[in-house]
Design a protein that fits this description.
Layout lengths: L1 E2 L8 E2 L5 E7 L2 E5 L5 E5 L4 E4 L5 E5 L6 E7 L7 E2 L10 E2 L17
Parallel strand pairs: 5-10
Antiparallel strand pairs: 1-8, 2-9, 3-6, 3-8, 4-5, 4-7
Pfam families: Cupin_2
Protein name: Putative RmlC-like cupin family protein
InterPro entries: Bacilysin_H2HPP_isomerase (IPR052535), Cupin_2 (IPR013096), RmlC-like_jellyroll (IPR014710), RmlC_Cupin_sf (IPR011051)
C-alpha cells in the first residue's frame, strides 16, 4: 500500500487482531498507548507489530515522500474500532530498539 506524504490515520485499534506492517520504502511513525504516549519510527526493511486492542496511529513521517508498506493481519476480517475520544499527549515518549547491535540514536547504550 502507498500512503501519501504527511498523512496519518485517526486513533484506532483492530480488536482481537494482530497486525504486522513491513516498510518497503519511506519512513513510518507509529504512536501507541492509551493516550498515544509512545512513538517510534521505522524505515525500509523494518517491521512494526501491533498487538490486539492497542490504540495506535500510523503516520507517514515524511512531508514529501510516499510511504510504501505491506500490511498483514491475523485474520481476513476487516476490524477497525475508531477511538475519537482519545486525548493524545502533546509530546510522546520516544521508544528505541537498543541492543548490542542497535545503538541508541543519541549515542548511549541505554535501554
Amino acid at each position: 500500500m502507498a500512503i501519501e506524504p504527511d498523512a496519518k490515520t485517526g486513533v484506532h485499534h483492530h480488536g482481537a487482531l494482530e497486525s504486522v506492517i513491513y516498510i518497503v520504502s519511506g519512513k513510518a511513525r507509529m504512536r501507541w498507548g492509551e493516550r498515544l504516549e509512545y512513538v517510534a519510527e521505522a524505515g525500509p526493511g523494518d517491521f512494526i507489530f501491533v498487538p490486539p486492542y492497542v490504540p495506535h496511529q500510523e503516520i507517514n513521517a515524511s512531508t514529501d515522500e510516499p510511504l510504501h508498506c505491506v500490511l498483514v493481519r491475523s485474520d481476513n476480517e476487516a476490524v477497525v474500532v475508531n477511538l475519537p475520544d482519545v486525548d493524545p499527549v502533546e509530546r510522546p515518549e520516544s521508544v528505541y530498539w537498543v541492543d548490542p547491535i542497535h545503538k541508541h540514536p543519541k549515542g548511549t547504550d541505554r535501554a
